[in-house]
Design a protein that fits this description.
Two copies of one chain form a homodimer. By secondary structure, chain A is of the alpha/beta class. In chain A, 26% of the residues lie in helices and 24% in strands. Chain A has 16 helices and 27 strands. In chain A, the strands form four sheets. In chain A, strands 1, 2, 10, 11, 12, 13, 14, 15, 16, 17, 18, 19, 20 and 21 form a 14-stranded mixed beta sheet that branches. In chain A, helix 1 packs across helix 9, helix 10 crosses helix 11 and helix 11 packs across helix 12. The radius of gyration of chain A is 25 Å and the shape is globular. Chains A and B meet through helix 1, strand 9 and helix 7 of A and helix 1, strand 9 and helix 7 of B.
């Protein structure tokens, strides 16, 4: 296997398992037949980075860690990792019996629960691809996504059956629906095979013989909920999932460990619940699965009952708890990670003052697996500066590289001032979209995120806007998000969305679209004056419109393209100041 | 690039960059020309896992983290990561000017200090291989190792010049010595080019153009200090180093983070200082480099002066501090990881009671990069059980797989009882030795560690002996280490080494070789009685020998092969009891 002497440097690398000579500075496989370039052999083992390896670790070393599922607000069931893994084995055997083969897509249309975790393990480890369908998509988006991914089997939670039934006729690739728990499945199309999850599992024994997978094989996929065009599919590999799970266990990632119990509020269909299930499985952290009980009351009750040390959620859920259950005892929570949209400073402050609980911001997207930046306090942060730091988007996580670029693709300095579009690179960042390359979204191999930010010298990212929403006024950029957040801190304002509208002199100027709170009143002049000492003068909107509601996307984000269209079509009544 | 429809599943994986069809369950490269097997494309970027990526992250995001070097007990210099990275660039350019090419080995014969960290960065990132030479090797071993690795250049600390000078004539491959700091270099052979580190660095500018490396390229190498045969070389890849650095940042690894300051007592030539330098660099943790000031007094002073949050050291150093500086204020230390040999329970207890500092055991070896098991307390450990848990070897770290096997290679259960040789597998575990395959050390691709242990159901490993030292008596195994530790808890015993000697009836029986403390007396009968209520009856040695000293290896471990040879040659005076 080894030749003696220096010649051995020209042989294969041991940890690649490759029989071909490999060039030192060439990427693997690009030049399979090129002349050998000297490279010293590493002696490391060639062990692929797979979810299967994580699965083996969790089921064995953390056999007694637990998955808790909220079956009803007052009823929580639990199973050990050993039990969950055994059932995942049975599910893998069951899906195989249904004709699922390596590379096939298996959709899940499910809440966060134990069966969904079993699917997270069984499907990728058997070599198939876990496709978590977003239960909140509009029917036409859901149809597009499930059809585009060519899901062969869909696992379906009973309470969600009516939602899937609406589109099932339009999914010719789907052969089988595996139904989970009680539900009204009568509306499901009879051309599909329908089988109960527990029945399927009961037909097989634990001990599935998982294949040895290439670490670059597809493991899971998620579609983005783009506000323009069709959703786009991101396909995670075993390698990216493994690396992301390691990163989520680092202190500067999410710090997930065997002493944690994670209340998983963020849905499993949102970027794999931010990658937390696999990290928790590898670390032996308990997971509490809240299913559909996501309102303030049940969430507060679940926290009091299960005492999680950690949670991950979007701001709206946390805000709900703060508003409606300020009496709750959340003191078990040592780490709450919040992302998905900008986290209002008032929410961070409110959690601190009301519950004594710290919220840490994190940033990422479906395309980034999603962990890219987390707002851990740097060493030596003065207590009076803590809130300012926590209000930033986050600090770049080791393993991803991040830069900001101007409109011409030139990299901008990390001075906390320059604003550019975030571009990102790394082993768990997407480099294309499934069957939809979309080269405009990439720049020299880096993903263009569409988020505009500045970066501080210590790698703290501060997102100011979406690239398509930023207002370009006289060659400078105005952050629509900053204006909105400032406006929404006015007591009379329920919602505010600011869009750029054409302006002869400045190219674009901001138009503030405001929804007043019930029974509240405020004039555009009053709101303008309110803003005057809070933002720089040239940001102040001259144009105002009072509207009944800000249009929203299927995942609840402000849909500014609708507002822009309404303005273009003359549907907004615009008041002009001064 | 993508074909529409299902066919696309048969194309290359995006994150491999491979132009070849890749089989789902075939290892990459093994079957480069085989028929395509369906595999869904992942859309992930093909970003190699390299030390270069970690270097970029640390120098940029953690530009202001610091390397502190103890230049004299009362003088500590420091440099920021940004400064260290710039100097590493200059070193890379300097080594290039000396003719170092990708794949070439560059040795370091150095203490832990800033220049050694610069070498850690420059050498692998320029594509060369960092070979950390153990300064404590016997001359013949040092010669063997540097010659076997074919080091082309050696970086040499001034105070170590006389040690290298003794062997330099026998290292024909070495072309250049780069001298670091003041020292007596007069004895270095004049046939070698000798150049001062600072002079070399000063000739070049920061901003070296690092090549894009294959992640499986060799990055660093370390030789084991085997007690039998020649030392064996372990060659780490960029991939293994990167993964290990991530693992060391996980909470259940070493938990290294940006809030840490690490006093690096374990030498940089011992398994890359347990991988801590790269983890610290990626995390932005300060590192305190103690150079040769490793005695109890200076170590205590350094801790008081620099207030590290973390340290890593072998038991002897910690024991020295406990014995000689019980007055020291070590309260800044939140995490002390200890390994390299079994950690006495008394040391853990002593640190807790004297300093209020917790010692956590970790286990690994040069072959395992080395992180394999760490003794973090499981969730819910009762306070009265803490010490028992801390006295165990450690719990298996996510990313490595571990099993125990009997003499016939059969896997044994994890019941805390069955004793077998530890075998280990993972992406940072060696799969062979440099130019010295040694297939006996491997079993189905797993590394045979030579350590005998039991494993508890929760993945806690308890090492009882080295495989070659375990005593096989009547088909059962007796742990020589357990007998030694128990004997050494007798006040009259300074050292004890127990070896297996041939026995007609039982195959082997233990022979206890005891070194009495100065002015202490104890008979074999007294020691036998002392053991009687502490170990099971059939373990009790009938054979005793009182010796002046236990022979030791170059790194200070008991050298039992010498004792066994002395016994064989009739050089030990053996007393037989009952």
């Amino acid at each position: 296997m080894h030749r003696a002497g220096r010649d051995a440097g020209f042989q294969k690398t041991s940890d690649s398992g490759a029989a071909l000579p490999v060039a030192l500075i060439a990427r693997r496989g690009k030049t399979p037949c090129m002349t050998a370039v000297p490279m010293l052999e590493s002696t490391m083992q060639d062990v692929p980075l797979t979810i299967t390896a994580l699965m083996r670790h969790g089921r064995r070393v953390h056999a007694n860690a637990r998955i808790l599922t909220v079956d009803a607000p007052d009823s929580i069931s639990e199973a050990t990792f050993a039990e969950v893994a055994d059932r995942a084995d049975q599910l893998a055997a069951g899906l195989t019996s249904l004709g699922v083969e390596p590379g096939d897509r298996v959709g899940t249309f499910m809440w966060n629960n134990q069966r969904h975790m079993e699917a997270y393990l069984a499907i990728p480890c058997m070599g198939a691809v876990l496709h978590t369908l977003n239960i909140r998509l509009f029917p036409e988006q859901l149809t597009y996504v499930a059809d585009h991914a060519q899901d062969k089997v869909i696992l379906l939670d009973g309470s969600l059956a009516p939602l899937l039934a609406r589109v099932i006729d339009q999914l010719p690739h789907v052969e089988t629906i595996v139904t989970c728990g009680d539900g009204d499945y009568s509306a499901l199309n009879s051309t599909k095979q329908v089988i109960d999850y527990e029945e399927l599992v009961a037909r097989h024994q634990p001990g599935f013989d998982y294949p040895e997978l290439d670490e670059r094989a597809a493991a899971a996929m998620c579609y983005t909920s783009g506000t323009t065009g069709n959703p786009k599919g991101v396909v995670y590999s075993h390698r990216s999932s493994y690396l992301h799970a390691l990163a989520a266990q680092t202190v500067q990632g999410l710090g997930i460990s065997h002493t944690d119990r994670i209340l998983l509020i963020v849905p499993q269909f949102h970027a794999n619940a931010w990658g937390m299930p696999y990290a928790a499985w590898a670390a032996g952290a308990d997971i509490v699965m809240p299913q559909q009980f996501l309102q303030a009351g049940p969430i507060a009750d679940i926290i009091e009952a299960t005492k999680p040390t950690m949670s991950g959620a979007v701001p709206t859920v946390l805000n709900d708890v703060l508003t409606n259950r300020p009496d709750a005892d959340l003191s078990s929570l040592q780490f709450v990670v919040c992302g998905g949209s900008a986290v209002p400073r008032a929410l961070i402050e409110g959690f601190r003052d009301t519950f004594g609980v710290t919220i840490t911001q994190a940033w990422g997207m479906t395309e980034t697996s999603p962990l890219a930046a987390v707002g851990h306090l740097p060493r030596g942060t003065a207590p009076q500066d803590e809130l300012d730091v926590r209000a930033k988007t986050g600090r770049i996580v080791a393993g991803v590289e991040l830069r900001i670029c101007d409109d011409h693709g030139n990299e901008l300095p990390w001075d906390g001032e320059a604003q550019g579009e975030i571009e990102i690179r790394g082993p768990w960042i997407t480099g294309s979209y499934h069957l939809d390359p979309d080269p405009e979204k990439f720049h020299d191999g880096w993903l263009r995120t569409g988020d505009v930010a500045s970066i501080e010298p210590d790698g703290f990212v501060m997102i100011s806007d979406r690239a398509k929403d930023v207002i370009k006024s006289g060659g400078e950029w105005i952050s629509s998000v900053d204006l909105e957040n400032t406006l929404m801190s006015h007591p009379a304002v329920l919602e505010a969305a600011v869009i750029g509208v054409p302006d002869e002199r400045w190219d674009e100027r901001p138009l503030a679209c405001v929804v007043l709170a019930d029974n509240a009143t405020a004039t555009s002049g009053e709101l303008h004056a309110f803003l005057a000492d809070k933002v720089v003068k040239w940001w102040l909107p001259e144009r105002w419109a009072f509207i009944d509601e800000v249009p929203k996307t299927s995942v609840g984000k402000f849909d500014k393209k609708v507002l822009r269209a309404r303005h273009r079509d003359g549907e907004l009544r615009v008041e002009a100041l001064g």
